[in-house]
Specification:
Layout: H1 2-13, H2 18-25, H3 28-34, E1 38-39, E2 46-50, H4 55-66, H5 73-95, E3 101-104, H6 109-115, H7 119-127, E4 136-137, E5 142-144, H8 158-162, E6 166-168, H9 171-174, E7 178-185, H10 190-201, E8 206-213
Parallel strand pairs: 2-8, 3-4, 3-7, 7-8
Antiparallel strand pairs: 1-2, 5-6
Helix pairs in contact: 2-4, 5-7
């Protein structure tokens, strides 16, 4: 209740951006209507849930990423968890997956310091109440070097920019494990690819990724 009142006071003092307003207006039913899961065209181990080209989806992602908007997270957490459960059902039946690691793509220390939060970690945390006993949350496994932001780099240079940026801090937790990576957006997929490289080199059995948008 106090948090709600504090948010109302902040909203009165600081105008809500149009992106935040759109993000807050999206009900779970509306998000379900926008849902359009797709396998990445070049990397078939990546599944994205929403089309980033949709203005509402774009506003939602930007509000969560750049403005720290939390209001949509409970609904997104349920939707993302449902997708994870569906994927796990197939993986358990066909490939013997059991209790995979669920890892949010980490921010670099510089980005975390400047922004104050990792939006992907927040998104991943929102799934956990719906995944009890089905995954092991492992936010302490991956490390990430400070590099130029991928959104600031030409598409043709993104693979070079991110190459070698990720490392596994806790290899004992990764060896022999199946892994689900979570990220907000996968365009070229180079960020997820380098994270996967690090995990496979550390002994992960298989790595897949689920992102909010593509």
């Amino acid at each position: 209740m106090i948090g709600h009142i504090f948010r109302r006071i902040l909203d009165a003092l600081i105008p809500i951006s149009s992106e935040s307003a759109i993000a807050r207006s999206l009900s779970e039913e509306t998000l379900a209507e926008l849902l359009h899961p797709m396998i990445h065209r070049d990397k078939q181990w990546i599944v994205a849930l929403f089309p980033y080209r949709n203005p509402k989806v774009r506003a939602l992602i930007r509000a969560i990423k750049y403005r720290g908007e939390n209001a949509p997270l409970p609904a997104l957490g349920r939707i993302l968890a449902d997708e994870i459960i569906q994927i796990l059902a197939d993986k358990k039946t066909l490939e013997g997956w059991r209790n995979p690691l669920l890892i949010p793509i980490p921010s670099s220390s510089a980005r975390l310091k400047s922004r104050g939060y990792n939006q992907v970690e927040r998104i991943t945390l929102a799934t956990l109440p719906h995944l009890e006993g089905q995954v092991t949350y492992a936010p302490d496994v991956l490390g990430r070097e400070d590099r130029a932001s991928q959104v600031e780099v030409l598409k043709s240079e993104r693979e070079k920019n991110i190459a070698g940026a990720f490392s596994v801090i806790r290899p004992e937790k990764v060896s022999g494990m199946h892994v689900i990576l979570i990220d907000d957006v996968a365009e070229t997929g180079t960020t997820l690819s380098d994270a996967k490289r690090a995990l496979i080199e550390a002994g992960a059995s298989e790595v897949i990724a689920i992102t909010l948008a593509h």
